[in-house]
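As a representative case, we now present a protein record of this kind.
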Amino acid sequence: MTKLLKVLAATEEGYTLVELLVVMLILGTVMAGLTTVFVGGSNAEIRLNRRFQAQQQARLALDRIRTDIHCASAAQAQTIGTYTGSIKLAETNCYAYAATPTVSWCPVSVTSTRYQLYRSTATSNICTSSDATRVLIADYLTTSSNVFTTAAIPQNSLQTVGIDLKVSANTQTSTLDGYELTDSIVVGNYTPRCNTNPTCAITAVP
């Protein structure tokens, strides 16, 4: 019996410490590579979702403002209260507002790099927290500068409004995952066409 045990012990095979270390090193390298791939894919999905949110915010805002501008008879980019980059639209021809014929659009600051775009029909405290008529149209704008611009009207032309929406749903770094949507929209009910050479002044919208 003792002889048999000795024979069995002599034939047992195992792994050396060096072999175990080599296997662990190879396995660690493979796992590190897989982890990098998975993390990269997850980050790419997050960035894609943020960019999609930014595009959606900008396009929804543009669709809504386009309707108002097409209906307007005049448009004037101006600072409304403390909100720079805002615009007022004369909407008498489209909306029968009892209190005011004017629609205002304001980029309202949430943080130094995040703005919310509101639409308002108020005559006082426009776009402020006490404005019961304001409606949130878009979020995550990164700047209020030049959101809306109006310029002198060229001869034989209708007035246009320039729009520049810079949006980023990345709340950590607004310069990443951003989307910019620009357009120039004709003030549809502006009449008559400018007949002054070379340009006509913008009609004031109080």
User: Anything to note?
Assistant: The radius of gyration is 31 Å. The chain has two helices and ten strands.
